[in-house]
Design a protein that fits this description.
This protein has 133 residues and is α+β, with helices and mostly antiparallel strands. It is built from two helices and nine strands; from the N terminus they run ββαββββββαβ. A hairpin with a 4-residue loop joins strand 7 (89-92) and strand 8. The longest helix is centred in the C-terminal third of the chain and has 14 residues, at 107-120.
Amino acid sequence: MGVDYRNSNAMIVSVGHNIISCSTEAEFEKTMKELLSLDSAEVWISEKGEPEEYPCIGLLINAEGVSLNFFGDDGSCYSSYRDGAEKKIVLFCDGQYELDAGQVIGKEEVLPALTDYFRNKERSGSIEWDKLY
């Protein structure tokens, strides 16, 4: 029998068909560092790992950087934002997603924002955000 993540205080990280339970900040940071080193990934992070559970964060990772989306429990959605980005489209996940370069930030900027989310389940103030809705 597998672990029942719904009754855990862990942060659940989903990537591909893998579910990773991180019960400590150190485990979470280690997992995120490994994922951020990938050249292509789609990652979802939430407290229980349930579909439609908010708040949660979605990440798209490629060799150029990362796009973060924060989905609040009030129905709001924010995207990472980088002012002054070149006007171009950036592809993620073998072209499955096309995003404006202004939504892509450096991998080095992402870990502090994710650690903030692990700690307080809120949108981090360590990066800029653009409210989508």
